[in-house]
Amino acid sequence: MSDLPHNKLFFNLLSLASGPAAKDNMINDFSASISQIYGVDKVEIKEADDESALEIIRHISGTRKPYVDNNLSEYSLFSSLISYNDKGYRSYAAVPIMNDGKIISIVEMLSKTENKFTEEATEAIANAATLFGLVISYKSERQRSAKLAEYFDAVFNDNNPQMLVTFSGVIAKANKAAMNEFHMFQNAKIDEILGINYEQLAQYVGRGQSTIPIRVDGSTLTYAIIAEKAGNSLTYLSLKNNTEISLLKAAKESIEKSDYAVIVFTDLNYNISAATSNCETMLGYREDMLIGKNIADLVQEKKRKEFEMVLFSKSTQQIKGRTELTSLTGYPINMRFYVSGMPQGFALLFVNSDAEKYVEGLKDSLQDFLNNASELVIKTDEAGRITYCNMAAESMLRFSISDLIGKEIKLIYKDPSIIDRDIGYARSSSKPDNTYVDLLKKDGTIVPGTQSTRLFRDSDGNIEFVIVIKELLTKRIMEMYEQDLLKNAKEMKDMKNMSDLKSQFIYNISHELKTPLTNINGFSKLLYSGDFGELNEDQKQYIKTIADEANRLMLIIQQVLDASKLEASKVKLDMKEVDMNMFKDNPSIVSLREAAAEKGLTLDWKVDYNVPAITADPNRLIQIFVNLIGNSIKFTSKGGITVHIFKASNRKIQCDVKDTGIGINEEDRRKLFKKFYQVQKGLVKQDGAGTGLGLSITKELIRLHGGDISIKSEVGKGSTFSVTLPIKPRRKKRQQ
Ligand code: ADP
């Protein structure tokens, strides 16, 4: 657990729980904490017997896990969730508050934003709720704080130091990382550990991330600090070793192993605060002899003025120069030095000038490497005359090295203007890479290649150019194909972008349409209720028509939204354990049964005894059933509809939705799942205009689950839609 919001919730909880507050206040503070930290629109804690959440509580008691629905819709599993959807909420999470294995209450959280509750956040809140349950159930203070201490260690076990500080500046609690990094003991004072007192610390509260220097093990390190109030009396601190400094530390470690360089850290007045330990082997000073000394005191008397002048000329960001350091034995040592500014001081790197000899040595091995390389490496002077080339000149171009040295480089190109151009680029400090060239061999034949050109300065500051050339044979043909492929790919991509744009547009528009429609619907219901004045029968009839039409429009918009979301692959399934028996009493299915009854039709729901629970998105399953059963009711005038669910094999179940309606002929059956397809426009009209999207959405949703749908039908007798669903979907499908 490293995220600040989660930690903050725990700290709020800790301070809340360690106070003597009454249970009711605690509950209020707890919900306030959650809504503030997670930006949730509504938080309520409901007792285990609360009528309005009974279904949910029963469900959670069964699973013992939080229940999350990040896309509230009219197809939601529980009736309380449908009513939240009506009120404009889009995400819902309920987590249990448990004690002794029993649910004592639940926390209900609601947000108007879709997909609000990430798994991580829900888990953190669930943990917090468990702790909370534990706290409010403990009677004695002592028992309670012992439990809290255990909890702290379990929760704050990440790698960064974290602590809780009281307003008297005592560290009330620190995690293991803090204890180890700062060698802390219980109840330490904050100023002894971090070197700042409580008032100074308070200034960081709520400021986001700031930087402070802290002395650790004799070195001053910078830390990123985040401070937040935790409840009324505690401050929460999270510290993180600054990357820059960690890097310096790493550099320090590698320098310490060498015997030609040292690093010395100073404060802003160049007084030494730390140094690499090899100062002892190189200069004779132990680190503790250096601390507090001014850096200039290490420089040979006669060089001191010059050294200070360089240091204080803060004209460039990085200052460098040469000087002589005094060793304890009195011998001067020639050094190159580099100074880097840091927030609270300087780091000075001294490199023994003798080390330059090593560099010379390195050059020889570089030469070996170049000679054996398969690339042709050529060096020219500023005028373009060859001053060096490697052995590849012979293998690639059949020139001997002595053929080329002193000649113009243009000689080896079919089109000399290319090298002029690349050298021009290199001169204006760009880096021409992989330009195509045709090279002339000694016998006049041509070798295709690519080259990179760079400008360098030799030790005297003269300009020289290095050109590295790779031979190409088949590459060019490959490139031609590649170009073609790229062109095709780009066309494909353009088409996809267009289509994405279109889906996004439809999605946005549909979303926008929903808000005014909700108002039309809501207000016409209000008027219809008569609370704003009695209506006569005609008026009532008109307003009912407005409400009905608004409802139907809403359904259509929802379908368009779903279709565009599916097209843009934006539908995410929220997979859960689903018992197929529980849909029978689902509000959406119940209202379909009523609609069927109004037409004199029956609606039966049969689940075989051996059908196991499956893993699926329950809300999407309801949507699938509502579509299929809704169609059946629409196209059936006598008889009834049966839903029969049975185990089709060890891996899947099958749901048959069977009606005794008008049936569908073979040709239509084949086209049915295409978008916007309607069999007989005239027929559809009488029951309200459809969009022809229902079945294509249904099929997509089933496919997302890893299932399939098929039809059997006989014109005049009826249709059966068969949906198969895997009992456990394969992993890949689950992540969609
Ligand atoms: P819509 O949203 O317009 O109802 P659907 O994709 O759900 O579109 O259905 C497309 C067409 O398939 C319907 O217009 C209807 O002609 C036909 N259809 C669907 N279900 C049935 C059924 N159970 N019996 C007869 N025809 C059906």
Please characterize this protein's 3D structure.
This protein is 42% helix and 25% strand. By secondary structure, it is α+β, with helices and mostly antiparallel strands. A 5-stranded antiparallel sheet has the order 6-5-9-8-7. A 5-stranded antiparallel sheet has the order 11-10-14-13-12, sandwiched between helices. The radius of gyration is 38 Å and the shape is flat. The site of adenosine-5'-diphosphate (ADP) has 21 residues, from helix 21 and helix 24.
What's the short version?
This protein has 736 residues and is α+β, with helices and mostly antiparallel strands.
Q: Provide the residue-averaged pLDDT.
A: 80
Helical fraction: 40-55%
Beta content: 15-25%
Class per helix and strand makeup: alpha+beta
